[in-house]
Structures are given as structure tokens and as C-alpha cells.
């Protein structure tokens, strides 16, 4: 535990040393010169040595006072700068960290809706690497995972699902059974995220759609593939008519609702969950909770209108 002198005594000494005057220090701190003298006497008693030579005037610092002054002065400057930074945080953008795919396919199309209800600017930082909220650089992280990390506040936003999507031009109005899906190039998403590949694969989807593991394996054995490590690329490839993609329903929602893609099959696979992560100690907690609540409401609307 730190053993520090009273703050008023330190402030009185720092101001008097800076001005070389008890009177000017008193004017700055809105007290009397007698109060300044009393606080400095108290500090000298605690330190066990004189900090000023009071005669002849003007006052001057002793060797001990000259050693203490720059340390205190720098400390108070640091305190002031830190407080100004915190005050400035009220006006800075709300910083959101998320994946590139979520930023491009879910968040960006809805930013105009946020601006309709809030004047707070958003700064979106897209990266596949999870951020450390404790470093103070990010206010909210939107992550896709089986389960959320510990040590932070967590709000579950939605449960994702995966389904085949294809350009209506490529489908050309034709009916297509699951067993015939290899008529098209299969666009495959191989995520770098741990455990993702175990949950979402064409093999898993075909098994669910046909109810027959061997048949699914045979269909895939005759199929051609394009593989991507980024979910947004699978959606773009499908829109471009390169094949049929097994895509996140959350991320494909806009393209489905706008008719850029269609979902020719009812069978879906469960994906992971989307979570909002933040720190309860963040001074902008009320704003963060408003933003997270807005995202959750928008996702509920998406679920009610699957496109």
C-alpha cells in the first residue's frame, strides 16, 4: 500500500514551487496564503526536511525541494492529460471489432438504420483475430463462436444456421434435388476458426438432406469444388454465378432478400452463435448497451423476415 502525503499538501507545494510564491499558489488553488503555508509545513514535517528557503525573499527551493518538484509536476501533468483523454472519450466514435464478413454483409447494410436513432459515430475494425477488450482500444466485439470467452460481459445475439444458396440466374428456375447438387460447382467455406469445420461441411449437409451417409459421399465424390477461407468470398462467388455455396444464413440475408441469391433447399445446418462482448467497467457502458440492444433487435427482425 502506498504511503503518500495528503494531496492538498502536494498540490500546495507544487503550485508554490512553480510560481516561487505562496501568494500566487493561493490564488491558483483558491485558498489563502496562510493555508498554503500550513500545507507546506505539514509536507515538510512528513518529509523531515525543509523544502523552501523562506528568507530572503523571493522564496527558493532547497536541494530536497528541487528534487521533489519535477517529480510532482510531471505527475500532475500526467493526471491532467489522463483526465482530458477520458473527457474526450465521450465524443470519440464507438469502436466495434468484428470479422470482415460480418462487417461487410450484416453491419454495413444497416449503418443507416443506426444513424436514424443515434448521432454517435461508429468506427468498425474488421479482423479475424479476437481483440483484447482490456487494452481500452475497442468498446464492443462481435464474435462468432460455440461459446463466449470469460472475463467479459456477454450478450448472445443469435444462433446462426447454414444453407445452400445460389444465383437465380445459375439455377435458371430448374428444380434440383439434393442428390443432384453436384450439377453445380460446390463453393466450400473452410474457416480458420477452431471447430468450425466439424459443424459445417457439404458432407454434413448432404447427410441431413438425403438421410443417407453413403449417398452423400457418392454425390460429393463426383462434385467439383471451389474453396475459400473467408465467408464473404463464398457469398460473392455464389452471387457471381460460380456455383452453389453453403453459407451463413445471417450473412446471406441481404443477398437473399434482394434476390441476388435464392435458397433452393429447406435443409439447414446449425452454425455457431454470435455474441456481443464488452466490459462492464467501460465508462461508455450505457451507450454500449444501447448499441448491442439495437443489433439484437435487428437480428430478431431478420429472423422474422428470412428473405
Automatic annotation (TrEMBL):
Any one GO BP annotation for this protein: DNA-templated transcription
Transcription in keyword set: yes
Keywords (A to Z) from UniProt: DNA-binding, Transcription, Transcription regulation
InterPro entries per record: LysR-type_TF_proteobact-type, LysR_HTH_N, LysR_subst-bd, WH-like_DNA-bd_sf, WH_DNA-bd_sf
GO molecular function terms noted in the UniProt entry: DNA-binding transcription factor activity; sequence-specific DNA binding
Superkingdom assignment: Bacteria
Domain (HTH lysR-type) ranges: 5-62
Family the UniProt entry places it in: Belongs to the LysR transcriptional regulatory family.
Protein name: LysR family transcriptional regulator
Provenance organism: Aestuariispira insulae
Amino acid at each position: 500500500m502506498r504511503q503518500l502525503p495528503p494531496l492538498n499538501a502536494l498540490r500546495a507545494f507544487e503550485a508554490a514551487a512553480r510560481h516561487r510564491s505562496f501568494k500566487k499558489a493561493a490564488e491558483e488553488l483558491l485558498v489563502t496564503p496562510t493555508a498554503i503555508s500550513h500545507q507546506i509545513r505539514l509536507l515538510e514535517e512528513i518529509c523531515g526536511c525543509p523544502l523552501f528557503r523562506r528568507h530572503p525573499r523571493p522564496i527558493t527551493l532547497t536541494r530536497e525541494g528541487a528534487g521533489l518538484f519535477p517529480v510532482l509536476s510531471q505527475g500532475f501533468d500526467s493526471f491532467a492529460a489522463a483526465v482530458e483523454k477520458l473527457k474526450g472519450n465521450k465524443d470519440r466514435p464507438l469502436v466495434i471489432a468484428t470479422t470482415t464478413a460480418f462487417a461487410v454483409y450484416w453491419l454495413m447494410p444497416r449503418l443507416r438504420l443506426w444513424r436514424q436513432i443515434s448521432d454517435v459515430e461508429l468506427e468498425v475494425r474488421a479482423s479475424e483475430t479476437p481483440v483484447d477488450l482490456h487494452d481500452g482500444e475497442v468498446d464492443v466485439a462481435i464474435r462468432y463462436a460455440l461459446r463466449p470467452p470469460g472475463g467479459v460481459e456477454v450478450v448472445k445475439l443469435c444462433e446462426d444456421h447454414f444453407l445452400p444458396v445460389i444465383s437465380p440466374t445459375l439455377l435458371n428456375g430448374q428444380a434440383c434435388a439434393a442428390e443432384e447438387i453436384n450439377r453445380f460447382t460446390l463453393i466450400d467455406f473452410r474457416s480458420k476458426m477452431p471447430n468450425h469445420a466439424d459443424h459445417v461441411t457439404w458432407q454434413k449437409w448432404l447427410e441431413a438432406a438425403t438421410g443417407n451417409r453413403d449417398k452423400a459421399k457418392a454425390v460429393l465424390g463426383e462434385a467439383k469444388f471451389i474453396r475459400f477461407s473467408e465467408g464473404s468470398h463464398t457469398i460473392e462467388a455464389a452471387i457471381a454465378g460460380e456455383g452453389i455455396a453453403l453459407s451463413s444464413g445471417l450473412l446471406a440475408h441481404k443477398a437473399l432478400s434482394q434476390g441476388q441469391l435464392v435458397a433452393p433447399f429447406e435443409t439447414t445446418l446449425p452454425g455457431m452463435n454470435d455474441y456481443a462482448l464488452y466490459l462492464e467497467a467501460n465508462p461508455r457502458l450505457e451507450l454500449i448497451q444501447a448499441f448491442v440492444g439495437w443489433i439484437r433487435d435487428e437480428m430478431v427482425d431478420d429472423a422474422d423476415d428470412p428473405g
